[in-house]
């Protein structure tokens, strides 16, 4: 037996809105209409919703004051105007539809959706995790580190500098001689004003979108949030 289901346009549109729209990503997004390009990044769903309603709707609804003909797109804004400026009832307005001069046709692309209660909660938790990672990354970036290497007048030193932490672990070894590490200093004001004789800072850069594996000179332990992966090959840097 063949079953045929007939639905009206409004029912189908409602089904589209409830089931076919992509979810709003917790970290924010660009407009999902290709013609908009990547010109503006929306951090909140309300910003995106305001943009979509103001650009991708062919007709705009305006609320107009019946007393002074002031028009506003948001009804609550016009109601405040009626009460504050005219001291009258909030219902003294009329609705009109006008053509959207900035209209960009979304074609068959649907606006993003914020999802149901469970999906919004999951998105909120993900957003909080992302913000926490950003906060930790910012704190790590603010830690001062210093460029170090061999003495400029000594031959045979390593060609490249290393980025030294401000809190090295001092461990006594069995050797009779010492390795020598010298901090880098500016010898000119070319790079910044009053930089002459100041220490050369450096930064450890990483991304939260990929696995980070690094060697930290002067340390045989890990900072908070990091894990020692190959303790069997930890040792001493030679110079």
Automatic annotation (TrEMBL):
Annotated coiled-coil positions are 116-147
Task: State if Coiled coil is listed as a keyword.
Answer: yes
Keywords noted in UniProt: Coiled coil
What's the protein here called?
A: C2H2-type domain-containing protein
Q: Which species does the entry assign this protein to?
A: Mytilus edulis (Blue mussel)
């Amino acid at each position: 037996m063949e079953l045929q289901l007939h639905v009206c346009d409004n029912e189908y549109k409602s089904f589209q809105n409830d089931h076919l729209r992509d979810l709003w990503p917790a970290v924010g997004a660009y407009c999902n209409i290709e013609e908009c390009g990547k010109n503006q990044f929306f951090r909140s769903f309300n910003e995106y919703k305001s943009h979509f309603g103001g650009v991708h709707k062919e007709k705009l609804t305006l609320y107009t004051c019946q007393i002074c003909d002031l028009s506003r797109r948001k009804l609550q804004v016009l109601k405040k105007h009626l009460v504050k400026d005219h001291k009258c009832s909030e219902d003294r307005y009329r609705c009109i539809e006008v053509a959207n001069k900035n209209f960009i046709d979304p074609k068959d692309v649907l606006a993003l959706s914020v999802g149901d209660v469970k999906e919004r909660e999951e998105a909120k938790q993900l957003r909080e995790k992302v913000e926490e990672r950003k906060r930790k990354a910012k704190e790590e970036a603010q830690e001062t580190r210093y460029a170090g290497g061999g003495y400029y007048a000594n031959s045979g030193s390593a060609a490249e500098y290393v980025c030294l932490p401000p809190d090295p672990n001092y461990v006594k070894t069995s050797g009779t001689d010492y390795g020598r590490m010298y901090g880098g200093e500016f010898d000119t004001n070319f790079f910044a004003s009053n930089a002459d004789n100041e220490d050369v800072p450096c930064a450890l850069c990483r991304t939260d979108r990929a696995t980070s594996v690094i060697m930290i000179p002067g340390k045989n332990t890990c900072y908070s949030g990091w894990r020692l992966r190959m303790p069997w090959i930890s040792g001493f840097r030679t110079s």
